């Protein structure tokens, strides 16, 4: 195991901010993962496993332990029936490469999650979702290294408490498990309408009446590319705030002043989901450039906070608070940050 010392964390977050990691290593297979975690445990040292850093913001103080980057690859299929398949991938595999492979096989279930940055092992952490699909819809099991038991175990999707942008990996069991592999249940066939509104509009504009998984992937890529910046070019972590969930009674009160406020009912509850992007735009943060912090919002999507010239996470957090305070004051709604804030 090769360990580097005092590694800049800005290289391991697509927001390109943060202090330094005391130690850093890459792992390329499950045995290397176990060795790295056990090394940290034997040193009584904190550790953290990451993928590409696309959903992470590091503090300026850095990380006083071992940062482990998951590079575990692998792709396999197991046919259950003529139409149904288990697909397994290594936790360090690029998520978008994984989705591409499934659509090339004519499998439906993940195509709407195309062009989402990150790795296979990172997506269950916040239960990634987009355009009407989420990881929880098709995830079957995860192979993980349990740092408490110091052994590999299999977690069922039902064990992971997958909810809207959350899971046990962000809450009750944060830091305990390292995801080394994931298995999904997919089907041969085409995605069925009605599609998510943006995709439906895309299809109608092009007279597309039926989509294969590959065609749906291409459409989603077109839509996302038109709205979102490439984190390899422009520093950002994608959607910075989660869509808030509020009681229906609060929505009714708000609609007296904002009858145009969009919302999505949450089935089986007395709550609705409000688009955070709409709240930010209504609060004045569309294509907003903050000279004091060097942060901004993306011109085509205010939900994406971009780093134009900030050199510290403190500047990002100052801008975050400015947005949150404005939305709270105007609507009485508290926004919550999507990317994890990590460090000492």
Can you describe what's shown?
The protein has 344 residues and is an alpha+beta fold. It folds into three domains: 4-70, Uridine Diphospho-n-acetylenolpyruvylglucosamine Reductase, domain 2 (2-Layer Sandwich); 75-227, Uridine Diphospho-n-acetylenolpyruvylglucosamine Reductase, domain 3, CATH 3.30.465.10; 236-342, Uridine Diphospho-n-acetylenolpyruvylglucosamine Reductase, domain 1 (Alpha-Beta Complex), CATH 3.90.78.10. It has helices spanning 30-42, 95-104, 135-138, 197-205, 213-227, 248-255, 276-282, 313-331; strands spanning 4-8, 20-27, 47-50, 56-58, 63-70, 75-79, 84-90, 107-108, 129-130, 133-134, 139-146, 151-156, 177-188, 236-239, 245-247, 264-265, 271-273, 289-290, 295-298, 301-307, 340-342. The strands form six sheets. Strands 6, 7, 8, 11, 12 and 13 form a six-stranded antiparallel beta sheet that branches. The protein has a four-stranded mixed beta sheet with strand order 1-2-5-3, with helices on one face. The protein has a four-stranded antiparallel beta sheet with strand order 14-20-19-18. Helix 4 crosses helix 5 (213-227). The longest helix has 19 residues, at 313-331. It is globular, with a radius of gyration of 21 Å. The mean pLDDT is 96.
Keywords:
344 residues, alpha+beta, Uridine Diphospho-n-acetylenolpyruvylglucosamine Reductase, domain 2, Uridine Diphospho-n-acetylenolpyruvylglucosamine Reductase, domain 3, Uridine Diphospho-n-acetylenolpyruvylglucosamine Reductase, domain 1, 3 domains, 6-stranded antiparallel beta sheet, 4-stranded mixed beta sheet, 29% strand, globular
